[in-house]
Write a structure and sequence with these properties.
This protein is of the alpha/beta class. The protein has 7 helices and 9 strands; from the N terminus they run βββαβαβαβαββααβα. The radius of gyration is 16 Å and the shape is globular.
């Protein structure tokens, strides 16, 4: 049975910034590093808010108190994931749980991908509203990576994932996906000090 179905343009599209990881490869909380006058965490939330994602949730876990303090005054709802050490799937499940009663779709983005823009998030929403599929994927050259939009018909799958990344779920429903191509130069995730220094050198 297909999960797809036509939607009205007034569909409510939520956003989730996944920011619960422990930054093990960085050696410090990478999301609190400053870039362009803001922490990476606050930057990601500002981008999501500028794109009109509502409700906007931020899933935190590692150093949750520090992350919460960093986001005081931001237009978002904090969701603490006590199982963040299990992997990204647990944070995606927490996000889907948090918006399940009020959203028709959910855009999941990562707080450590600073080159994702509000324009990109707006384009993903427009693609969803103009299609009948259950997924909108971002592709950077040959690589599929967030941000990714999930129709609410996929929320139960997000909520029931027991391990691993989101890729198997994406592949399962790829036949129902729209794909937006972005420049591979925008695929920049910050995992190490070298990654962050390269971002600073880029001056984007």
């Amino acid at each position: 049975m297909s999960t797809s179905g036509m939607r009205a343009r007034g569909s409510k599209i939520a956003g989730a910034v996944l920011a619960a990881g422990c930054s093990s490869r960085m050696g410090q909380n990478k999301l609190l590093l400053e870039w362009k006058g803001k922490s990476l965490l606050r930057h990601a939330v500002s981008v999501a808010a500028a794109a009109g994602l509502d409700p906007l949730v931020v899933v935190i876990g590692f150093e949750a108190d520090r992350a919460g303090d960093e986001l005081v005054g931001e237009p978002c709802r904090l969701v603490v994931n006590p199982e963040h050490a299990l992997g990204m799937h647990s944070s995606a499940a927490a996000a889907a749980d948090a918006v399940a009663q009020e959203a028709d779709a959910l855009v999941i983005m990562l707080a450590d991908m600073p080159l994702v823009s509000a324009t990109m998030l707006e384009a993903i929403q427009e693609e969803y509203l103009g299609s009948s599929g259950s997924l909108v994927l971002s592709r950077y050259g040959e690589v599929t990576a967030p941000p990714t939009l999930f129709d609410r018909s996929l929320f139960p799958y997000l909520q029931s994932m027991e391990e691993g990344p989101l890729k198997p779920l994406v592949e399962r429903f790829r036949s129902e996906a729209s794909v937006i191509d972005w420049s591979p130069l925008l695929l920049r995730d910050i995992d190490t000090q070298e990654d962050f220094e390269a971002l600073l050198d880029r001056g984007a």
